[in-house]
Design goal:
Blueprint: H1 8-23, E1 32-41, E2 48-52, H2 58-64, E3 67-77
Antiparallel strand pairs: 1-2, 1-3
Length: 78
């Protein structure tokens, strides 16, 4: 059964990885793991990287109403 176009975070991560491989970035030298804060804001309504914990407090963003759809994920910071 054919599948549709890839969408969502998995497709975004795969695209990011393809771009890194095209630039010659090896899987082992991406940097260290950190907690990334993703969400939407009034300036950028599409889901995007807002910042890294502890520089960005996801609870404070939510309480202030400045971001929504907030998720925190462990990512390589590089």
């Amino acid at each position: 059964m054919p599948r549709g176009y890839a969408e969502g975070p998995a497709a975004e991560e795969a695209e990011r990885r393809r771009e890194e491989l095209a630039r010659g970035v090896a899987a082992d030298d991406d940097g260290e793991d950190a907690l990334a804060v993703y969400g939407s804001t009034a300036d950028e309504p599409e889901r995007h990287l807002i910042g890294w914990v502890p520089e960005v407090d996801p609870d404070a963003l939510f309480e202030a109403g400045t971001a929504w759809g907030i998720t925190v994920m462990r990512r390589r910071r590089g």
